[in-house]
# Entry
Amino acid sequence: MDRDILLEMKNIEKIFAHVHALDCVNFQVRKGEVHALLGENGAGKSTLIKILTGVYPKDGGRILMEGKEVKLASREDAAALGISVIFQELSLVPTLSVYQNIMLGKELSCFGFIKAKQEKKKIADLISYYGFSLGVNEIVENLSVAQMQMVEILKALACDAKLIIMDEPTASLSSHESKLLFKIINQLRERGVSIVYISHRLEEVFHLSDRITILRDGKNEGVVEKDQIVPAEIIRMMIGKSVSEATASRVLQKSEEKTILSVQHLSCLGAYEDVSFEVKRGEVLVLTGLVGSGRTEIIRAIYGADAYDSGKIELEGKAYQPQIKKAVAAGFGLIPEDRRTQGFSPLLSVSKNVALTNYDKLSQKGFVNKADEDRLGHHVAELVDLRPPNPNVFVGNLSGGNQQKVVLGKWLTRNLKVMLIDEPTVGIDIGAKNEIYELIEGLSQNGVAVLMVSSDIAEVLRVAHRILVMREGKIAKEFDAGIVTQEDILMASSGFEAEGEEE
# Structure
């Protein structure tokens, strides 16, 4: 056993419904190294980390810490071994202060009384040591998203962890805050703490990592040492050379149809800057890029859900000032990123959910015609091939794919001009994905201008007529003609030029 090895995961297997999410995966982390875990969406990164942190049981293989085999049946088991994780989703109590969140579950106490003064000093020293711009008494709900992410990082640092897993830690951070994080990571490495770093921002990965492990389709694709990193080769390993040309690329062509939606020099401080584009009648324009590049914020601004600072929007050549009520009346529809909290009401039936966007047609003099509401629910259930085809079932009881069909279906009975779609197939099985794609293509064929956000490159290539790659709040690249490949998109979103492409 190499004394420099902190963690070894040997031949790890995980099976979900007869599908191998992980197939004999090996992963090794040395003491005091930054080890990046790379792979496309669905490659198995999250599953591997959940096994390591005790969230999922493994179906095969062994896990060793410092040469000794260990069992991880819970997060408590992982924490006891010195494993901390910083998830992309925040897990803070908004009404508590910074120091209370960091000390939650590990309070300093005497005879049942919390030693608040000592806790504050401990956290203040920690904040000072790492140079964070936070006050120990600040209430978390008053912080920016970036500052909340800093609190999450401090929670892990306060545990004196041997291994810290960072899942997209810079997604919500500014450039300055990201540099502070990189400084912290280097300090941790010097102190012998190991970091597992997961990020779609490849330039960060290449800059920070001592080694990179690449997963593809639940299997090991390779391990690369720092001095062997070649960006184009890493990307090809993530995608896989065996991918067929039919699924790895798409032929794009500019539309000559009438412009329906025009966005000109749209800016919002801290989110996106000077963004301009047009969407034609019947066109599917996809905004892609890394998490935090401003894609969702643009969609929400166009719909009227969020404000923007400057720029203008036109609908069919006329100035348009977004407001949600006006947007619906003008022919806009929206499928939000988080369907569970923003897309449907789980305790209402399919018919009731469909009615939510159609009460202007279903009500007369303030009263809703129940028979019309039921008929509309049945119509939409047939239109989207709902399974089971029962419009009276609670939407919360449906599968993820059928829930998304309802979210999309409630707009299909309206006279749509523009459909705004944000990450339409997250958490949906492959069969339902294809049905969602067919519904999107149906909108396009009926002349609806579709503006879609997606992080799934295979999905982008499946549906897009034109592609805009966003990076750090700006449009970094447009693909509007000829053949575009997965490698082209990954390179553009990561800030690299594809091999052979001129500057």
Observations:
- Confidence is low (pLDDT under 50) at residues 242-247.
